[in-house]
Structure formats: C-alpha cells, structure tokens
Amino acid sequence: MTITEESGRVHGYADLRRLMGLMTGDEKHGPAATSTLDVLWVLYDRVLRVRPERREDPERDRFLLSKGHGPMAYYAVLAAKGFLPVEWLPRFGAYDSPLGHHPDRMLVPGAEIGSGSLGHGLPIAVGTALGLRAQGLHGPRVWTLIGDAELDEGSNHEAIAYAGPTGLENLHTVVVDNSSASHARPGGIAARFEAAGWSAAAVDGRDHEALYAAFTAPHPGRPHVVVARVEPKNS
After folding, report:
1. Could you tell me if 160 and 189 are in contact, meaning their C-beta atoms sit under 8 angstroms apart?
2. CB atoms within 10 A of CB 128
3. What is the CATH number of the domain that holds 20?
4. What's the CA gap between 25 and 92, in Å, rounded?
5. Which end of the chain is more exposed for a tag (fewer CB within 10 A), N or C?
6. pTM of this structure
7. In this structure, is residue 235 part of a structural domain?
C-alpha cells in the first residue's frame, strides 16, 4: 500500500476502482483499461524496482506501457503508488490536464514513453534493453505491457524475432489477452514467443499470485513473456 497526497489516505488494490471512477468523460476506453488493472497492480506493488523518488535513477527498472490507448488503470496505479497526485484524476482528458487519453512521458510522472500507437512499445523495449546492456547496466529490468491485438502489427514480430536470439535476459513482456487480435496464432500466443527463443508462461490475468509467480520465474539467457488471459473485450 501507498500513502498519497490525498489527506494521507492509504491506497491499495481495493481502492483502484474508486480511483478509476474519478476519471470521467468521453474516450475512456474502459474495457482496455480494466483488462490491464491486475497486471499493472502486481507489477507496481510487488515486482518493479522503481519508486517516485527513483524516477531518474539509472538503476531503476523501466516499465513501458505500449497498450496506451486505455490508460485509466495506469493512471490509477501511478496515483496509488504516489507518482502523481490523486487530485489530477478528475481532470483526466481535459485540454489542460497532464493526463491525456494517451500517456505523455513529458507530462506524466513515471511514464517512460509516450504511447497509444499500437505496435511501438515492444520494439522500444528491445532498444532500451540493448541500450542498458551497452552502458554496462545489468541490474535494471525492462518491462513492457502490450495487448494481444498489437500482435497484428508486424513491428512486434520483428522485435520478438530479434530479442530471442540476442539473449536479452533483462527484457520482459506482458501480453494482456482479451481476445482482441484479428489473427490467430498456431499453438497460442506463448508458442509464438517460444518459437523465437523466449521463455514463456500463460496465466489467469486476474490471479495475483499466478501473475507474481510468472513475473518472477527465472529465465537465464532469454527474454521472458507472460500471457495474461482476461475476459474477452466484448463479453
């Protein structure tokens, strides 16, 4: 749990729905946001080595939200963890708000990239992992969250095909699978990554213990992907 600026209130997972409820208006992409809620919480609460006061630390973990067209859950988690004031949430999407319908890394504390255009996050994560390796920074881990529909984009498959043989052990990807992809993958999403040399796991995307176990599974010498299955988008 985290104490935010909102009258010293302690925010935990149970409070995330209330925080999301503060964000109103059009273009919310509610299903896209709620599909990522549990993944984001487990990452920020138990896995990522990053805190508000370490946002510029070279040794921090990097989290890249590629699925950036539904950022309400992301903003709620960042507020719960003290990266941004809860008071910003009701202004979500307003013309003068830093919290846009797509995150802007120049405006949102804790955001590593500006996102929203599908297919960009994983290639950027590959480049980030390579950059850290080139700088001799072997401690920081790179995480990116993508949606299953982003696998319709060829840029992701180029990144998948490159990262496996390159042995980017510090690279981690979470695919939130809400049955939005247009093209089926023979053997499933995890099999696509495994064919390129990745370590892979598929779990219930609402089960926090299963997510944590998959996120922290060892994968020496290989990048790692976790496919988090959630309810279909249109269910």
Report:
1. no
2. 21
3. 3.40.50.970
4. 8
5. C
6. 0.92
7. no
